[in-house]
Design goal:
alpha+beta, Beta-Lactamase, Heat Shock Protein 90, five-stranded antiparallel β-sheet, 14 helices
């Protein structure tokens, strides 16, 4: 049974439903218990007070018959028709039965016809309580005198002059009216509770379903993501609440996963293509040398090609490892900073031979005073190196290269420019993709692996910056910004 309950009621829908219904039911039970307890006490006290008042009136009416009561017999009191008629009238008017007793609790007269002709003595404990405290209130069967519990109130009959107790008057009332009232209240409470529970059930069912439905859809979408299908999107539920916010975040996650999957597949395809070319060349020429297809006098030439392709393969693997390392680095952590001008001068010096070999002139616009920027010195140096090397590689021989940096609104703006063939507009955004080489550059860049500009973009993204490129009328310009360092930056 427990397993069946666990299997059928383990979902969020049923858990929330049961919790809501349980809380409503518990609230109704507590309110009902409190209401019935308070109403019982209030009604009982009201009934007791009314009976006590009636008993006191009857005591006043019977005082004249009891003033000499120690010597008045029961028969004498009963034989007085006027008093019996008065007592019976009082019983009818007050809806209670009266018992007039002496100070010992012996009943001298009763209006209850069921007790007529019987010798009745009231409980000694009640009589003593009346004599000592002035009244007694009980809900009792009077030691078996009645078959059901009744309200019993006893008061003393006091002498007007001496205030001496000359007798005791009991008023006995049935609980029928109170039982009827309670049954009516109980029926009303049960009906009201049923209606409230039904309303709570329907409201909780609708609310739970609206909450569970998007969660189930997300679970189904997650399973499809696990199968490699990233086209699933969560719809807008139109509630403008946390579920809609979660759905929007879920869609953003799906788009990010889809983009990562696209990049992964593209990366695998690109790297397979890029690795296949040098490996095929190395294997082909090696087999040609081993099986004698390549003449001995030509073997040195092909061994040099094998050596070049091996080094290119090594550079490609090293660049891929660099990309992986850069993507897991936060260069802005700790507020590190360096002199950008000095780094740019070192890059210019390291590329002097390549620039000279291509017969290029360099226009340098680097200020003499330091420009301190936030970031990693080695990584930004790599960015400037890659951009300047790329500009020198594709510049038309005999033209000018430009390398400059300037302060602009709290930023250091770096520009690298060359003169060569114009890059088509649709080709510009693809320059920074992994392993991308434009058709015009393939024949020229035999040693490139197509990761230089991708590394540039990756490093700048780690520095929370972007790289921009334009190419018009043979002039291609790369530019990016870096945040300048202030001494109060670290303390903030």
């Amino acid at each position: 049974m427990r397993r069946w309950i666990r299997d059928h009621f383990r979902g969020i829908y049923w858990r929330q439903m049961l919790v809501t219904i349980g809380m409503v039911a518990l609230t109704l039970v507590l309110l009902g218990a409190s209401f019935f307890s308070l109403s019982f006490q209030y009604t009982r006290n009201q009934k007791m007070d009314a009976i006590e008042a009636q008993a006191k009136v009857m005591g006043q009416l019977s005082i004249s018959y009891l003033e000499s009561g120690r010597y008045m017999s029961m028969e004498a009191l009963r034989s007085d028709p006027d008093f019996q008629q008065l007592a019976s009238f009082a019983a009818v008017v007050s809806d209670a039965q009266f018992m007039i007793c002496d100070t010992e609790g012996h009943v001298l007269l009763t209006t209850d016809s069921a007790l007529s002709g019987q010798v009745v003595t009231m409980p000694e404990k009640m009589t003593r309580e009346i004599m000592e405290k002035g009244s007694s209130h009980k809900n009792t069967k009077l030691e078996g005198l009645y078959g059901e519990r009744r309200f019993v109130v006893g008061v003393p009959a006091l002498n007007h002059t001496t205030q001496e107790t000359v007798g005791v008057v009991y008023a006995v009332a049935e609980m029928t009216s109170l039982d009827v009232m309670w049954r009516g209240l109980a029926g009303l409470f049960i009906m009201t509770s049923f209606v409230v529970l039904m309303i709570a059930f329907m409201a909780s069912s609708i609310s739970s379903m609206r909450q569970v439905k998007p969660i189930r859809e997300m679970a189904q979408a997650t399973r499809r993501y696990a199968e490699g299908d990233f086209d699933v999107r969560m719809r807008d539920y139109g509630n403008n609440d946390e579920m809609d916010e979660l759905a929007a975040s879920f869609n953003k996650m799906a788009e990010a996963l889809q983009e990562q999957e696209r990049q992964r597949q593209e990366f695998i395809a690109n790297i397979s293509h890029e690795l296949k070319t040098p490996m095929t060349t190395i294997a082909g020429y090696t087999d040609g040398i081993l099986d004698g297809t390549i003449a001995p006098e030509d073997q040195r030439q092909y061994l040099e090609i094998i050596s070049q392709e091996s080094r290119r393969l090594s550079r490609m693997v090293r660049r891929m490892l660099d990309v992986s390392r850069l993507q897991n680095t936060d260069p802005l952590r700790g507020g590190s900073h360096f002199d950008l001008c000095e780094s740019m001068r070192r890059v210019l010096i390291s590329l002097e031979k390549k620039i000279t070999d291509r017969n290029l002139d360099v226009e340098v616009d680097i200020p003499d005073e330091p420009i301190l920027v936030l970031g990693d010195n080695d990584m930004i140096t790599q960015v400037v190196y890659n951009l300047l090397e790329n500009a020198a590689k594709f510049a038309t021989p005999g033209t000018d290269l430009y390398l400059g940096v300037a302060r602009q609104e709290g930023k250091a703006h770096v520009t690298v420019r060359n003169q060569g063939e114009t890059i088509e507009a649709e080709e510009l955004p693809r320059l920074f993709e992994r392993f991308h080489k434009s058709d015009k550059s393939r024949s020229r860049d035999k040693d490139g692996v197509g990761l230089g500009l991708y590394i540039v973009r990756t490093i700048l993204e780690q520095h929370r910056q972007a790289i921009h490129v334009t190419s018009e009328k043979g002039v291609t310009t790369f530019s990016f910004d870096l945040t300048t360092f202030r001494y109060d930056t670290i303390t903030k």
